[in-house]
Amino acid sequence: MAAWTVAARRATTMARLPSPTTPSLLHRRGLAAAADHHGPPKVNCWQDPMSPSKWKEEHFVIVSLSGWGLLFYGGYKLFTGGKDKNKETVGASDKT
To answer: Which parts of the chain span the membrane according to its record (predicted)?
Structure first.
């Protein structure tokens, strides 16, 4: 009788454990659909330079930060005169 109970317990535990082919253990990708794009495809900034809305995000960031850097540098050079204060010429002397 004890052998029957042990066998019955093993059968119930085997029935409770899902087999590897059970649909609950199969891998499903759910929301990980990388190929499903929303909206128009993004392009490189040099392929369509006149429409920044179509650019890739990282290209937009690089171009806009470069533009701001040039704007600040140009403003600095404009307001500081764009030349050094201690400019010396070779061969010129103050003695007359």
So the answer is: 59-79
43 DSSP assignment = B
List the end-to-end C-alpha distance of the chain, in Å, as a whole number. 128
CA atoms lying within 13 Å on the CB side of residue 89 = 4
Task: Give dist(CA 52, CA 6) in Å, integer.
Answer: 72
Tens-digit pLDDT profile for residues 5-61: 877 777 766 666 555 555 666 666 666 655 566 788 899 999 999 999 999 999 999
* Number of domains forming the structure of the chain: 1
The whole-angstrom distance between residue 2's C-alpha and the CA centroid of its chain comes to 64
What is the pTM assigned to this prediction? 0.47
Q: Would 31 be classed as within a structural domain?
A: no
Beta-bridge partners for 72: none
Contacts of 54 (CB under 8 A, 6+ apart): 40, 42, 43, 48
Q: Is residue 8 part of a domain?
A: no
